[in-house]
Amino acid sequence: MHYPKANQTLMSLAVAAACAALAPAYAQEVASAATTGAASDTPVQTVVVTGMRNSMVSSMNLKRNSDGIVDGIVAEDIGKFPDTNLAESLQRISGVSIDRSIGEGSKITVRGVGPDFNMVLLNGRQMPTSNLGDLSGRAFDFANLASEAISQIHVYKSSRAETPTGGIGATLNVMTARPLDRPGQQASLGIKAVHDTSASNLPGDVKRGNSVTPEVSGIYSNTSADGRFGIAITGSYQERNLGFNQAAVSNGWKGPFRGDENNWGTIPQPGTPGSENITNRPAPGDKYSVPQNLNYSMNGVQRQRTNGQLTLQFAPTKDWTNTLDFTYSENKIQTRRNDLSAWFNFGPSSSSWTPGPVSSPLIYTEIINPAVSDIAMGAGLFATKTQNESIGFNSAWRVNSSLKLELDAHKSTAESMADSPFGSNSTIGTASFSRGTTTADFSQDFPVLSIQGADFQRARQQVTGSTFQNGYMKGDIEQLQLKGRLRLLESSNLNFGAAATTVENRSAFSNQQRDTWGGATSPADYPSSVWHPETVRQYFDSIDGSDNPNLFNQFYTFNFEEVRELAAKASGLPQLYLPKNTFDTDRRTKEKSKSAYLQINTDWDTTLPIHTAIGVRYEETDVVSTALVPSATSISWVAQNEFPITFGPPTFTTLEGKYRHVLPSFDSDIELNKDMKLRFSYGHTIGRPRYDQIQGGTVLDQLARINGGVGTQGNPGLKPVKSKNLDLSYEWYYSPQNFFSVGYFRKDLENYAGQSQLNATPFNLRTPVGGALWNQAIASGCTGGDTTCIRNYIFRNHANAPGVTVGPNDAAGNATGTIVGQPGDPIANFVITTFANQKQADLDGVEVNVQHMFGNSGFGLSANYTYVNSGLEYDNASVGDQFALVGLSNSANLVAIYENAKWSARAAYNWRDKFLSSTQDGSGPNPNYTEAYGQLDISVGYNVNDNLSVQFEAINVTDEIQRTHGRTKNQALFVTQSGPRYMLGARYKF
């Protein structure tokens, strides 16, 4: 007996891995895939459906007829992908979870494997990535691509020799429209009006644009009468105005400390002054942390996204198809921010604590008397632009009935840069120096800041410090792929291929920082009209705890450009209020890879038909990393715990690395009957390290502290993470539109690049801490934790000493100025984070899927649940370096639909359990946990006639908040409120 559909399936997977030109590109074609290929005695089941059901059934048949463990999403019709955002569509697939940015899906985690280790292809081609929010990552940002030009997405979860490497979680192939796949003229035009409610809940100084913004998209596809020529043009333009308000301990928590420690930052030990003010103190050996700051920010965002693609196809014969395509996207984002914050300097305090062994403060109060500390009120202006361009050529040739060849070449770039004369990320700090005793209440979801003694009339607002940053990132890929398929026997095929890929990544950064946090200019330099009174509570009304009557509910907002101009004029140093025109840090990495694979696919004529694929892939990569990094020259002490580093001319360093891998794979599926399949796959894959892990050069953070500083250093010799993957799956297609599947997967990971930290003294920088003048202040009666006393002593008794520059007294009568480390002072210690292949991990999980259409009622249901498990979880009671899997979480989806000739409706609920999102916060190696989050999206459509349809969509209907915490739930890091988004649109199909 001949194995049904095998030859068609083999062809589909081989070509889909490199180019969408020969793959089934539209819903009805995928739905009919089960009826094509070699002759078979298997009965043909024909299903005629449209719209959402068409998309869901087509996706089911894609899963059914693919080799290996494959899921996918198919467009409902030309120019009509199921969701407005590709990542939000992908989250409906079992095992796929998304990370959200400004209320949209941006990056994906698959089966517990984070975004950097999922490979994204565009028409079978590896795509570069560029994101100033993550200067050194490999994760593809789906927010840059509009969905209208996408015909389908394939998600390859199991490893095969013919699948490009880089995706340990999955390899995703995003496929765009091809005119020859759909002969004749096809065209549609869509318009939408978008109202994001979050754009209205903002202060006037950050609110921008109209409450309703437009989206326009169109697609045109046509072929010649003889089917030899084809052209497709797609385009879209989207504007969106939105906002988000965030309460945050944005610079992280200091610690963790042991309950028996007694040094700077710790709470008073028993028997010392202030210890009587501690309730339920952490026991000896317990771990606890204290907040460094508490910040409330209001952020207004404008985004403009432009996408376009031109595809030309020429088929001189029915066996030879040539495709030339150009893809362009641009994503521009402008953010305005106002904030209110208070910093803790770890003086006398009172506090109450959660139980150990890991404790967090419920209430933390720092006693400040007189009320002369700073109430910080800042403004930020962030503007970035990301552009992606890809030009590619594909030639697919059926040489004869036994041999098929395919050549594919492309050059693609992704580039992110500043989109403002003030840089990519710039802030101006202001303050009223009237803050007295300050309390942070972490007992509820919303952390509550309370301030005593505030008097904005007595201590008028003035500009303090500022930063003007410029970021730049560019990815460049040139790739040549050759592949083929040779039929060896009636039931066997040999798939083969080779590729050469060059990937270049550049990330650069500069920072113009003025560290005058004690006051840069006089309050008299700013007319009172530039400060606009505001209240806090109204911007966080959806978060539990924001109604606390103790909330400090007053602050001032201001216009960034207006105050920047006044500060530049008042200071007489206008150059410090603009970004640098050169980069301080410029790191460049080149990876040159060669690969080749062989894979033999065979159908076995047994009682139960079996199809197997046995293959091997060879990968060889050379890495060259060149880095221009700042050379540090000195440390200055400018405020109680502010020790900025001065940098001199940057210097270049170059390092190299290389690796080779042989990656075997085995895949099989067994037809139990015409409706049931068993699948088994085993194979090896690799995931390349992040760019910051392999970039050379030691980079120090600009601001050090009393106990030293921190920095980073890459390792170009890192090996990729290697994963040994096992997949088992049972699939039951119990009717033409319905299926049930359950799968088990396991991944054994080795060579994971764990973070390691080392103590170093780069550049031999001298610090005033512990130096001669410091020690004299201690001898005079100051304590080591009272930096105000030490600074007053030095300024008043050694005003003319080398490195000492005395400024005016502040409002409390304390001296200000700078103290620069001198020869003979101690050399500052820096904790340098670097990377090494020193970790192993394993994870396993189960996926369950069900799709059921209720006969001809029009109702349908799709549901899935993914359980992921690994013993490598973060130990919250442990201090220092440790290894844990980032992104590991359970997830679930429930989608209900109704559809008839006129109406369509869908309600989609996506849920993701709590997961570890990072092992770093602003103060060092500490866990960030993103709490469980569920979101409900609804859409309703109406077909006016065969050509015109209208649709209403609602995103985040229940107005969910997002929350991130540290070692305990009370250790809040970020609590974010946004709002629902509504869209009303019309689409005309020609």
TrEMBL record:
Record localization? Cell outer membrane
Instruction: Name all TonB-dependent receptor plug domain ranges.
Output: 63-170
Q: Name one Pfam family in it.
A: TonB_dep_Rec_b-barrel
**Which keywords does the record carry?**
Cell outer membrane, Membrane, Receptor, Signal, TonB box
Keyword check for Membrane: yes
- Membrane as a keyword of this entry, yes or no, is yes
User: For the TonB-dependent receptor-like beta-barrel domain, which residue ranges apply?
Assistant: 425-957
Task: Read off the PROSITE patterns from this record.
Answer: PROKAR_LIPOPROTEIN
Q: What is its main location?
A: membrane
Kindly indicate where the leader peptide sits in this chain. Answer: 1-27
User: What are the TM regions of this chain, as residue ranges?
Assistant: none
**What Gene3D superfamilies does the entry give?**
TonB-dependent receptor, beta-barrel domain, TonB-dependent receptor, plug domain
Q: Which SUPFAM superfamilies match?
A: Porins (SSF56935)
Family, similarity comment: Belongs to the TonB-dependent receptor family.
Which PANTHER family did the record assign? PLUG DOMAIN-CONTAINING PROTEIN, TONB-DEPENDENT RECEPTOR-LIKE BETA-BARREL DOMAIN-CONTAINING PROTEIN
Q: What is this protein called?
A: TonB-dependent receptor
